[in-house]
Amino acid sequence: MEPLLLLSTFECYELAQCYAILLCMKIALKIMPQRSTQYADMTALLAVPELLVCPLGQFVQDIQPVTLAGQEYLLVTIPDDTKDRYLALLPTVLPRLGGLSEGYEYFEQVGEIPGPLLRPIEPQFTPFVPFEMAEARRYRGKTNETFTRVLLNTAIFSGRFKLAESERIRVLDPLCGGGTTLFLALAFGYDAFGIELNRQDVDTTAVFVRQYLESERIRVKETDERGRRSGRRYQFEIGARGNTHHLVLANGDAADATLHMREVVGGPHMHAIVGDLPYGIQHFGEIASLLSKALPVWERMLLPGGSIALSWNATRITRDDMIAALQKHTQLQVLNEALYTQFAHPVDRVIKRRDILVAVKA
To answer: Mind listing the pLDDT tens digit for each residue in 241-290?
Structure first.
């Protein structure tokens, strides 16, 4: 194992002045640590495509997995003529990623001091609500929050809006379950809208939202909608006055998404739609029935330049079948270039292959 020396900012800059100027710079990005070996393997597989699809990906010349002091990293090579733009984006983009946790400038040697040497890159991102909100909510059938974060990022970064500060990003999860996607969307500073068919899941998620925000002393205002005929719905305005975001939980069918979102703040229009399709479905016919009803509705809700990202159990349902369904029922542009085919990964002994499909509205 190579020795690892962590230098202060001042020490690295002082030593770097004594070292020859390189044509490329290298950045060491730490794979997000996981308590479970199963999820650690998943995270390592997802880290590369997530990095390449995010705004940092356009600057990457090469990626190599490395181990430093027993920790897994991606060693990223950046051409010297783009390093300033890369370093300007890195502190705000990296903290959003699900597969990566920390970034360092990497030096193989500085002067006569052998490396590897790492200089930490200070993050510049404060989540709107703690990321812990997505981790704390436990429920049956919950998808690992690291994967959900990757799925959400893939949707946002693939559309026209990316990190646009001028837009108030709105995210819909029409199959929201216990709300993991919604809580992560809130953490990123988006407005979050969810639909779930199971009434009990909606009610218990609403209880969790109230209790969690109260325990964190985060202001929340709830709209009373007990008289609504089309199904139970909870609307929350979260955050201090002048800096609020909205969370909506609706009980109903995903194919009726427009109906359930018609009267919410901002209406039914969305910048991104993110859905984790039911894993228990074994045959494409069952998924096809859901998609044939829901996809046209979701497409109409997307703003131009908006994106949709769907994950599913690809053990028996092929990617080609999913692409055909989107092309049959929508005019969305499916992103199927090499980068977008790298998200497939095993989950467990039952779900031997899970995949992500992304499409964008012109």
So the answer is: 999 999 999 999 999 999 999 889 999 999 999 999 998 776 788 899 99
Residue 191, H or E segment: strand 191-196
The 10 Å Cβ neighbour count of residue 249 is 24
Nearest to 179 by CA among 225, 147, 142, 226: 142
Q: Which residues contact 166 (CB under 8 A, 6 or more apart)?
A: none
* Tokens matching residue 326: 């989107």
Average pLDDT of the chain to the nearest whole number:
90
For 2-46, write each residue's pLDDT tens digit.
Answer: 545 555 544 444 444 444 344 689 999 999 998 777 788 899 999
Would strands 170-173 and 333-335 be described as parallel, antiparallel, or unpaired? unpaired
Domains of the chain, each with CATH number or no CATH: 5-120 (3.30.70), 132-360 (3.40.50.150)
Per-residue pLDDT at 94 exceeds 50: yes
Length of the chain: 362
The number of beta carbons lying within 10 Å of the beta carbon of residue 99 is 24
**CB 99 within 8 Å of CB 146:** yes
Residue type, 74: L
Q: Which helix (H) or strand (E) holds 171?
A: strand 170-173
pLDDT score for 98: 96
Strands (E), 198-315: 220-223, 233-238, 245-251, 270-276, 302-313
Bridge partners (DSSP) of residue 27 are: 76, 105
| Cross-strand bridge partners of residue 221 | 237
Between CA 159 and CA 57 the distance in angstroms is 14
pLDDT in tens, 327-350: 999 999 999 999 999 999 999 888
φ, ψ at 205 (rounded to 5°)? -65, -40
